[in-house]
Amino acid sequence: MNEQVQQIHDALPEEIKERGSLNVAMSPGMAPLNYPDEASGDLIGFNPDIAHQLGEIMGLEVKLHAADNSQMLPGMEAGRYDINVSNQAVTEERLEVVDFVEYYFSDSRLAVQAGNPNDLSVDNFCGMTIGVSIGSFQQTEVLPGRSDECEENGEEPITPESFPNQQDGIFALTSGRIDGLAGDGPVILYAVDQESGIEELGSLTSGSNLGIGVTKDSGLLDPVQMAMQELMDNGNYASTLDQYGMSDVSLDEAKVQTE
Questions:
Q1: Which of 23, 74, 110, 139 has its CA 20 to 30 A from that of 217?
Q2: Is the pLDDT of residue 166 over 90?
Q3: Residue pair 71/88 in contact by the 8 Å Cβ criterion
Q4: What is the pLDDT of residues 225-252, one digit of tens each?
Q5: Beta-carbon neighbour count of residue 233 at 10 Å?
Q6: Hey, is 243 helix, strand or coil?
Q7: Can you tell me whether residue 16 is helix, strand or coil?
Q8: What is the DSSP track for 121-167?
Q9: In what order do the strands lie in the sheet with 198-203?
Q10: What local confidence, expressed as pLDDT, does residue 90 receive?
């Protein structure tokens, strides 16, 4: 164990050292970020890889827990999860429950059926039914704001259709149950690459750095930040991003955001 890694392990709370494990929450069904392996059912993807790498640096066994966005923060408040590695945007509401360690950049994007049969654009999809994941930034922030703009301009509001995860939304889009899908950039771009039945229209937001959520006052914020920075510095982070075609969303610094 090198000196930096030893310092990170030493900074862990005694309770976590004694337990020897880290409970990590993430939402399933978001390829290539986190999704169940077809054979084993285990969560795989960018986020599971990052979580296990963080655990290796901290000297902890990582236990992954699938939880949708609506369950995640209550679960952290209840002590079921220590951190989440689940591409969460930093919002005032979330900062009431967790602190964040930034780990990659993302925006929100809009996908439609191939050929764009309803002639949607990122500037105007008023009156349309748009899929979102339950508890996602797109559900809580992006669509409500866009829908308000529609009504202010005398147009029909947007009808949100909520799904447990973005993979279910992609299936609903390809089957024609919804007019469009608003989701995280890496998920939308990966889906377009894998699925010929949809296309991506562009960004709905300017984007922001997403964070690893750490339960407040748990004593884990500094160790998680140091471990994430170590991954960025030692090249493993860049290699993992490249593995999932996400090199263009990389960060150089694992900054902390607190309330």
A1: 139
A2: no
A3: no
A4: 999 999 999 999 999 999 998 999 999 9
A5: 14
A6: helix
A7: helix
A8: BTTB-TT-EEEEETT-HIIIIIHHHHHHHHHHTT-PPPEEEEESSHH
A9: 159-163, 129-133, 180-184, 108-113, 198-203
A10: 94
